Amino acid sequence: MQRRRHVLDLDDFSRDEITALLDSADAMRELLSRSIKKAPSLRGKVVLTLFLEPSTRTRVSFEQAGKMLSADVINISGSGSSAEKGESLLNTALTLQAMHADLIVIRSPHSGAPYFLARNLQRMGVVNAGDGRHAHPTQALLDLMTMRHHIGELEGKRVVIVGDVLHSRVARSDVFGLQALGASVVLCGPPTLIPLDLLHGSEGESLPDVNIEHDLDRAIEDADAVIALRIQQERQGAGMLPSMREYTRRWQVTEGRYRRAKPGALLMHPGPMNEGVEIASSLAHGPGSQIEEQVTNGVAVRMALLYQLLTGGQEEAAE
Questions:
Q1: In this predicted model, what pLDDT tens digit does every residue of 84-133 receive, in sequence order?
Q2: Do 99 and 185 share a domain, yes or no?
Q3: 296 CB burial (10 A radius; 0-12, 13-18, 19+)
C-alpha cells in the first residue's frame, strides 16, 4: 500500500491497495481468535474518536481495534463537547491536535466534514467514519472482506444493493470498492430513492458502470451477494415512499426473491436493521446471512487500517 495520512473514501483506492489492506485485515482477524487479543504494534500512538452523531457498531469497533493494537484510544461524543457549546469543528480539531494525538476518527452528520479537517490539520491523520449521506469507507471495506471470504475474488461477481441508495453513504463507498475489484454492481430500489445522476451513466460521471433496476425480482437474478440498506420511517413522511407496507411488498428480500440469486448467495446489511422490513425475518439469521460476520470483520478491517496509517506498514506486527 502507498503511505497515506487520511482515509476519506474509496474513490482514490486502487485494486492493489484495497487487496493489500484486505490481506492485512485477514491477518488481523487471526489475532481476534487468540486467547490474548493484544499486540503491541501501536503502543505509544494516540487515536481520538469524535462522533458527532449516534453510533454503536462503528465507534466501538474503532475503539476495540485501537486497543487491541495497544494504542491509547480517547472517545469524544458530540453531547457535552465544545462543539455542542458553539466551538467550530476546526477549532475543536486544532485543540485536539495540540494535544499531540496521531489520528482522529470522525463521524459527522455533515457531508464533507472529514475532508475539511484533512485539509486543515497538518500533523494529525483523519479517518472518515461516516459523513452525512456521502461516504463510509470502512463499512465498504468490511463488506468487501466478508464477500471475499465467501465467494473469493470479486472480479466478475454480481452484487445487488437494494434500498435507500439516495441517502446511503454505505452504498456510495461500496460501489467504489466493488468497481475497483471488478465486480458488477446493480442498484435497486424505489425511483425516488435512486440518485438521478445514476440513471444514465456516461463517461466522466463518478459512477458510470452502475446498473439501475427498480424491480428487485429482476435485479436479484443470479446475484452472488445482496446488500440490503436501512429504510427510515421519515422517508415516507417526506413523500419518497407510498408506505412502508408498499416498500416491504416490492423491495424486501424475501425467501422467494432470495432463491432467484445464486445458490449460497451472501445476504448482508450494514445495520442497524429493521427486521422484517429490509430483509424477511426468516432470512435475517439464516445460513446465507453474514450480518454478524460483518461486525467481526469490521474490527479486523479497522485494525488493519489503523496499523497502516500509523506505521506505514513498515513494521511487522508482533507475534
A1: 544 688 888 888 889 899 999 999 999 999 999 999 999 999 999 999 99
A2: no
A3: middle
For 228, the domain range is: 137-291
- Structure confidence by residue, pLDDT tens digits, 32-84: 888 888 999 999 999 999 999 888 899 999 999 999 999 999 998 766 555 55
| Global pTM value | 0.91
Q: Domain for residue 110, yes or no?
A: yes
Number of domain units in the chain: 2
Are 149 and 279 in the same domain?
yes
User: What is each CA distance from 224 to 160, 184, 186, 282, in whole angstroms?
Assistant: 8, 10, 11, 20
Task: Compute the half-sphere exposure of residue 193: CA atoms within 13 Å on the CB side of its CA.
Answer: 28
230 and 216 belong to one structural domain:
yes
Q: How many other C-beta atoms can be found within 10 angstroms of the C-beta atom of residue 301?
A: 30
Asked if residue 258 is part of any domain, the answer here is: yes
Residues 58, 188 share a domain: no
Q: β-strand 225-228 against 266-268: which pairing, if any?
A: parallel
Provide the angle, in degrees to the nearest 10, between the axes of the packed helices 15-32 and 137-151.
80
All cell numbers assigned to 128? 472518515
Distance, in Å, from the CA atom of 75 to the CA atom of 298, rounded to the nearest integer, reads 18
CATH of the domain at 205: 3.40.50.1370
Do 21 and 146 fall into the same domain?
no
Say which residue the cell 453531547 belongs to.
79
